[in-house]
Every structure is written in structure tokens, then in C-alpha cells.
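@channel anyone free to eyeball this complex?
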Amino acid sequence: MRTEVPEPEEAGPFPIGVGRDVTERKQIEESLRLTQLSVDRAADLVHWVACDGRLVYANDSSCRRFGYSHEEILTRTVFDLDPTMTPEGWPEHWQELKRCGSMTFESVHRTKEGQLYPVEVTLNYFGSGGEEYIVAFARDVTERKQGEDAFRESEERYRTLFENMLEGFAYCQMLLDEGDRPVDFVYLAVNPAFEWLTGLRDVVGRRVTAIIPGIKEEAPELFEIYGRVASSGRPERFEIDFTPLSKWLDVAVSSPGTGYFVAVFQDITERKLAEAERETLREKEQELAEELAAQNEELRAAQAETARLLEERGSLVRRLQEALLDIPQELPGVKFAHLYRSATREAQVGGDFYDVFEAKQGRIGLLIGDVCGHGVEAARVATLVKDTVHAFAHQFRRPHVVLREANRLLVEKRLPGFVTAFLGFLDPESGMFTYSSAGHPAPLLATDGQIGLLQSIGLPLGVFPDERYRDTETEIQEGSLLLLYTDGVTEARLNGDIFGEERLAEALGRVRDRPLEMLPSLLLDEALGFSGGRLEDDAALLAVNYLGKLGGKRPSGREQA
Amino acid sequence: MKVLATSLSGVPLLKVIGDVDHSTSPALDQSVQEALGPNGMRLFLDLADCPYFDSGGLSVLLCTLRQLSGKGWLGVIAPGPNVLRLFEILGLTVAPDFRVFAETADAKAALEG
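replying in thread with the prediction:
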């Protein structure tokens, strides 16, 4: 904007031109007045400065902004209004402007009150007829400056954030092929975190495929997502196992404009590892729990099976034991009572057996024996011995022959361990008792007040194939009592001592007159009383009362040999 | 039960200390087998400190006797009365290959005699 400069000496603010005729002059005056008005009322600050720095004109805006009246402001110099101007620097400034003709710069104005505000100033040199002026246009740029400062602060703030944020930041341009498919992207800006999170340096301006070869193959989904966001503008967030860097990344991607995207990401590898570890632990716990449950199930099944087997075996054992100890209720000429008790330490079938049976020539066979060992095998052997003796007893009339044959059979069968046995044949007619022992404890014979041992010496059955046994013969008195037993009775222990034959004989003496059927249990009680209730081995007792020649009727038709 | 392996005039001697029952008889059996070896013919058992034999222990003696039968013998030294009675009942004391000595000196004398 150019304005004609009036004569400074003139009182009025209006510059006066000289026209050739009135009409023309009037027109010029109109124009001048309009111009003057425009300048006076212009929003920008307009003032003229003389070469000595004095103000020779200031428009309304200028007066208002500086806070001076028209009269006051014309008494001021440019040095009052603009603190950046000094009288010392003024001549040079003037010359500079004169050379350039015009210049625009930012400066500061000072109001009458001393307030400073930023301005943008355009100065124009005007020289005419020896007079020189600066025509200055100034604009208060306080608001613009504030906006700029705010922007700069904001920019600064974001820059700081960008530089210092822990998340990696990458601003990229997506490159598309002819079919608008994303094929590559170029890094336009990255922050320091990007570099130390990825370990990648100097990526700006380069294609990602050049920086991380194979990225498209290893992380195709990354391309897909970036491409989608760059074209759609819709932000996405995802976690990715970024194998090229061996890291788990949490990526938030957005697009500032079509074809561009910003990826903000953090390294969540540790979190993922911890999660994976927790998951592994959880799986292991689960597996263990399942295994445990399965084992418990197996255990329950095994327990049930064991219980079933035990029950089955228990019943088998009971049947075996019953078979072993199954003897007739009565036979002519004798009364008997018997008892069997398992060893304390294992409540299972033992190898003890006894029998009272009809033998050759109407005699009564008395058998007791003990298989070394316990359990079903011992019971099986006991059954075998019992049956064998039974069978031979019908064939041979001498007990030592029966034992010899039984021994031979057992040795042939190669039995483990051995079997002790006592076998006697009682002739109820004569009272003659013939007996033989194969390593078995000697039975007791109680006659009247006397108690003796029926000794007969021989090795157990099943050890030596050619072992020979001996018979001993004795006449039994009417009313006498024979007590056959196994060593479980006499071997009942207390502190290293055993119940033994003598104590058993004494006990028999004490209970001799009690009812026969009570004797076995009374005698066992004596043994248990000695040992404190403990049995080392199975115990069997067979008490036989000889009723005498008149005591029983002889079965008819018996053959005498 | 403990078994101490020594020898008497060149014949292996096992000193048995403690009960020979179902739980210890396997150990006695093993000691006897080690003392005899594959070709052993004679063996002493010192039973002075062995108060008790159960059927398992007796089984070891019977097996040993069977093993030695006809070629050697088994000697027991100083068995207590209960144990000796057991041996008698079992018929061992009349078995030709089973010898009973009241004390070690008797056993030694028997060897030298």
C-alpha cells in the first residue's frame, strides 16, 4: 500500500495536492480524502518516521495500540515505540532501508504503559523533494505469536515424547503394486526406542524388505495389517510373534493419511514368555492332576481287585483249611476233640493237618502233621500228605511202611522244605497202639495220673528218599487220653524260652479231668498264657480218648488180616 | 541273628548268634552255602548262642544234611536243650551224617581222632 506523503509542516493531517482545474482538483481531493480516511482507519498500525526517528504521523490504530493521543504520539520517537531500535543503530538501519526500499521483519512495540507486544513490521523508504520518510506498517502479532508458541511448545512436547517414549514408533509409507496390494513400505521417521527395541539402525528412507529380508515370508500378516490400515485409515492393534527379531511385539497401527501408517509398538517378549511359562505350568499341573486322577482310579481299581482276590483267596483258604481239618464226627471206640489256630503273624492257611480215620483191619488211624511253611502251597502239600497217608493206610498195616511210602512219593515230587508227621493205628479191640514218627513232636499219653511221651525217632518226610522209619507199639489203657499236637503249641515263646513238652505235659495233667471237647482249647490257652498270647507258628491239637473194649461197637464185617 | 564264619582245624565253622526263624533262616542258608562251597563236605555250626530254631531254620539244616548225605557230615556244637530237643524230635540226632558235640573241644578232638 502506498500513500502520498504530506508536507510535515502542514498542520492538518491531509496532504494537499495541486490540481490544474477544480474538477480535477476536486477529484484528487476526494481521492486523497478517501486515502487519508483509509489510512487513518486501517486496522494495521501506520506511522511515518522521519530520518531523525521522530514520528510525523500515526493512524488511529497506532495511537490506540500505543495508548497515546495523536498529539502525544507525535512527540515520540521510533526509539520510544520500538525498544529494538536505538539511536546508535538508526543511521545504518536507515541506509539499509534506503538501499532495499522495503523490508519486513518482526519486532517489538512498547506501549505508553510499558507493555511489550510482538509486531510484524514492513518499512518502506520514501524520498521526495529532499524529504525522506519511512512509512511503517505494523501488525500486532501477539495472537499469532501465541499460537506459534503454543504450536512450538506442543511440537516440542511431542518431540520430547517421541524421543523418549518407551514404545517404538515408526512412520512409514506403504508401497503398493499395480493391483494396489501392499508390497513394501518405507520408513519415514522412527524414534530412538524403535532402534533399541528392534536393534535396527539408519532405517529412515529405506525399504523394510531391504532392512529385514524375508520379512514378507516370515510375517505376512504384518504386511496385511499395515496395508489394510494404510488404505482404510482404521486403526488396529495386535500382538505378533515377530520371528525375524525373535520378539513378541504389541503393535498399535494407525494411518495419518491414505498410503501412510504409524506403528507404535512395544516389546512384550518377557510378558509372553511369562505367560507361556504360566501356561506350561498350568498344563503340567493339569497333566499331573489328570495323571494323579488316573493313578487314583487305578489304585482304586487295584484295591478293589486286591479286596476281591483277598476275599477269593480267603474263601479258598477257608475251604482248604476246612478240607485239611475235616475229620469224622465220631468213630467206634474213641472220642476226640480238635482245634486249629493260625500263627499270630500271618492269618492265613498253615500247613498243619490232622485226621482220624478208619484204617485197615478195623483199626483207627490217628494222623497229625506239619508242612514246613505257610500259605496255599503248604496247604496243598498238607492235603497231598493227608491223602497219601490215607491211601497207604488202607494198603499197609504198619505205620512205618505208610510213612516210608509217603516219604518216597514226596521226595519224588521234589517238595520244597519238609513235612513232619506222626501216624498211629489204634486197635480199639485190643487197645494196641502202633505208631511211627517222621520228625514230629511226640504225642502225650495220659493214663490215670501218669503222662508220658510217645517217642519215635525218624527224619521228616520229603528229605531223604531212602529214609527208614520205625514202629513202636504200646498198649493203651481204657480211658486213656492221647494228645497229638504240632510244634506251634510247644514252640510258643517267651523271652527266648519255649512252652515245650514238659509244660504241655504239666498243663495236660491240670486239665485232664475236664470234658474232652474242652481240652484242646484249654491246652492252647495254657500255651498262649505262657507266651503272652502270641503264636510263632500254626498250632493244631487233637485229643483222643480211648473208650476201651466196651466203649464202642465194632463195625460188622470187618476183615481181619 | 548274626553268623560269624571261622574254621576249626580246617573245617568251616559258623557261629550262629540269635534266633533262626522265618526272617533270618535265608541268611543262615546263604552263610552255609558260602561256607561249604560247591564241594564242601564238612561243616560245623556253633549253636551255643542260638536259642531258637523254627521250621525254616530246621529246613536249612535238613537241606544241608541232604546236600552232604553220603559224602560228609554236619556237626552242631553246644546246642541248647530246647534246640537239641528239636533236633531229637526231628530225628536229626540219629541221622548218620549229623553230629552233635557238647563243646568245641569235643568237635576238635573228633576231627583229630
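from a first look: The radius of gyration of chain A is 67 Å.
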